Amino acid sequence: MNKIFSLILATSLFGCGATSPVKEELGYEGHNSNGVAVSELLEQLKSNPDVQVRVERGWQIAEVKSERALYSFTPETHPAHPSYVKREVIQKEGSIYIETSARCGAGKNVCDQLVRDFIELNNKVKKSVGGK
């Protein structure tokens, strides 16, 4: 599992997000209007001494080891800004997965592309560690 988490860290430069009125092939449904705003979450993570936040190519990446999670916050120049994607390594029924969730502040098409980017990235990580 540490190997997968390390690979996620190494490949955490892409983003994804999602808003859509209906469930579709990308696997998300509904518009996320509840919860903490993107900027508020970033500030909460930055103020937590147990969270490491770094900047890579304009993306702010927050590593939360206690959750086995990475949060990727879009740079201001990204079409989906303000958005973040959370990727968490989970173990379920003896297998390891990368669970991805997102909050996107852009239109559906831009958010869909962001989701596709992360799906592709997750698949590359999975393939590189010998997953199916």
Query: Which secondary-structure class do the elements indicate?
Result: alpha+beta
Order of helices and strands: HHEEEEEH
Strands of the largest sheet, in order across it? 1-2-3-4-5
- How would the global form be characterised? globular
Q: What's the story with the biggest beta sheet? A: 5 strands, antiparallel
Q: Assembly type of the shown chains?
A: single chain
Radius of gyration: 14 Å
Low-confidence stretches: 1-23
Structure description:
By secondary structure, the chain is an alpha+beta fold. The protein has one domain. The protein is built from three helices and five strands. The chain has a five-stranded antiparallel beta sheet, with helices on both faces. Strand 1 and strand 2 form a beta hairpin. It starts with a helix and ends with a helix. The N terminus is likely disordered.
Keyphrases for this structure?
132 residues, alpha+beta, five-stranded antiparallel sheet, 3 helices, 30% helix
